[in-house]
Amino acid sequence: MDKKKCSSKYIDELIERYPSLLICKQDIQNAFLTLKKCYENGGKLLIAGNGGSAADSEHIVGELMKSFKIPRKLDEAFKNNLIKEDDELGKVLSENLQGTLPAIALDGHFALSTAYMNDCEPLLCFAQQVNGFGNKNDVFLAISTSGNSKNIIYASVTAKAKGMKVIGLTGEKNSKLSMISDICIKVPETETFKVQELHLPVYHCICLMLEEYFFGN
Length: 217
Hints:
Layout lengths: L2 H15 L7 H16 L4 E4 L3 H13 L11 H10 L1 H10 L6 E3 L4 H10 L5 H9 L5 E5 L6 H12 L3 E6 L5 H5 L2 E4 L5 H24 L2
Helix pairs in contact: 1-10, 2-10, 3-10, 4-5, 7-8
């Protein structure tokens, strides 16, 4: 199966399990293509959300930074470099390290976050990290069930100003985030916990497609 058909397979399986997400099909595909281009160009993904969406941010990082479903073998050149640096330790590293898709969740830097919130403007904490970490080839995944979380909006505006692409992940209502985003996946629910219940299979699908594209046979 070629990679284009494989990515389509994952979206079809997603919609078979969650028929209400049919309305999001093209946006999910566009989000995948945007992230594919980001990683092909040496970029990384920055992710932010509040509460349950902060937990989702960390969850996504876990799926991208290590094997999700399939093995992610290192390329031979890097394996050889590891062994060249230290024969004993390099062999352990070369046999156990996995290929990665770089991703950073912005909720977990407690010293930086608390320092910035204490010294500066608390609502700009994510924006400050986007300003520091973000580059032109990167993508910002902005998660907000309402689409109107102020700290997420500030970070999204900062990302756009840095030349980054912004992917929004929200509920079905039009929002400030849906207007700012280059792509906005608006799952068809409005109540917070129901929106979050649909966010998880959406980002799992995107992670599966990315893993298959970059690490599949």
